Amino acid sequence: MQKKTFTLIDNRTGKEVEYPIIEGTRGPAAVDFRNLFKDTGTFSYDPGYTSTASCNSTITFIDGAKGELRYRGIPIEILAKEHSYLETCFLLLNEHLPSISELHNFDLELRHRAFLHEGLRNLFNAFPDNAHPMATLSASVTALASFYQEHLDMNNETEYHEMAHRIIAKMPTLAAFAYRHSLGIPFIQPDIDLSFTKNFLTMMRAYPGGKMHLGPLGHEEIKEIEVRALDTIFTLHADHEQNASTTVVRNVASTGAHPYVAISSGIAALWGRAHGGANESVIAQLEMIGSVENVDAFIARAKDPNDDFRLMGFGHRVYKNFDPRAQVLKKLQDELKETLGLDSRLLDIAGRIEEIALNDEYFVSRHLYPNIDFYTGIILTALKIPKNMFTPVFVIGRTVGWITQWIEFKKDPSSKIARPRQLYLGD
Ligand code: SDX
After folding, report:
1. Ligand 1 pocket, residue 278 CB under 6 Å
2. Whole-model pTM over 0.90
3. Fewest beta carbons less than 10 Å away: which of 139, 349, 386, 401?
4. 316, 334, 348, 360: the active-site residue
């Protein structure tokens, strides 16, 4: 009978220790090293956690080699094509897609919870106009925590689902308010007659009184194709296993802090350009490159070990094949090219980068493919969403993933406070 264990031999002492292998339902197994230090006085060393499973989970599965992503077992391609973002939110939180009545009630609850306490509006005035909306968003979510109780009964599903619905519903409002504060224009309140995604676009674009932007011959209403495009983008961003910001959310959850400050910490972590901030950097980079003729020079810089220039929107810790979300976005980009009038200059530059990088030994040998951030920016630009709101859009999509991971952590009896050790090299 095959033993499902790892045997480690410390060649300094000849001591052998054996550790159980835990099989997953999909993907790699894990060696249970929890007693390694107790047994051997030695730490495992894995900066960046490239080979470390920090938890067990049933929420999202990624196969980096196959370019596979599943939420609760359902492939992302199916969810993006056949289901709405709200159905995906319900699926992540409840482990099954909603019935018609479940979706109706979920949608209704989110519409009613989209409003903010009036006291929160004053917070935005504390920020300068040029404050990045991610700074305002993170601060306002921390402030939101002070309006709601700290300790949740994790045996009371209604209570913690209400906490989850509230933050999912309010994030678009907070993001839209942060944007409008940066322009010094009046806030547009949520409209309970509008869907989650159309409501966000309206709060971003409408004139005071909720009137849409006056086009040359009348009102420029929000088009259904724009709503569908953004809804798909939210779905693609909903969750992504134990990425950097989700790891932060779980670590903050492990200290017992308020769930909304865990989300606020996730927002702060996502802002970095190596993570969710990459979508904004991609467009800035395409604009900096400026023309197809300049692409080769920038590719050379990306490959130069002495140049810290990196191709934003390329590479991924897990996907060593294509990012399935990028594949969905590329198809969406092609569909929207004519209807939304995507910026052909940026598209041409992006296309040239992709054409070179996918055939260049430097990128191929390092498995550097376009990731989700490479494509979102051009579509969001066509949706009249400015660059500094790209990562807040990522936040709106990801909030359901963060809060679902927070709930899973809090309900896991094996969860402990996150407290890694170190390899000390000092005096
Ligand atoms: C997201 O984790 C998630 O799931 C995140 C995310 C989610 O949904 O939550 O998917 C969202 O964050 C997507 C990634 C967005 N970031 C970017 O697009 C920024 C550019 N990409 C890189 O900075 C980088 O690829 C990372 C951060 C995404 C991954 O970094 P790793 O896994 O630590 O890889 P690495 O830095 O060790 O790079 C391996 C090699 C190095 O070269 P060598 O030292 O072997 O010679 O590849 C090179 C790197 O220099 N490399 C790049 C590169 N990315 C890696 N070279 C040029 N351009 C790049 N973009």
Report:
1. yes
2. yes
3. 386
4. 316
